[in-house]
Amino acid sequence: MEETRKKNRGKKRSRRMQRHRTSVLAVSAVIILLLAVVSVNSVTLKAQESEYETQIAELESQIDEEKSRSKQIDKLEEYVGTDEYIEDVAKDKLGLIHENEIIFRAQ
């Protein structure tokens, strides 16, 4: 009788060990799968980050260009308000001159 009990205990242990191994393998497989997914997403995010950094650099250079263009426009606006600009436009577009100026034309 005692031998039967020992055999039954041995079978139960064997079954438990088998279940334990299966559980450990299943958990290990899930962890490995999660690791693979996280790694792939990490690589994708790094590539996307690189693209964004390039885009940021381009936008910053455009901002600098627009700032310099804005300064040029401000200077032009100041120049347009002066008498010198009015005289230049009168000479170029209307052909007007001052009373004491002499015009030389090529023949």
Automatic annotation (TrEMBL):
InterPro entries: FtsL/DivIC. This is Septum formation initiator family protein.
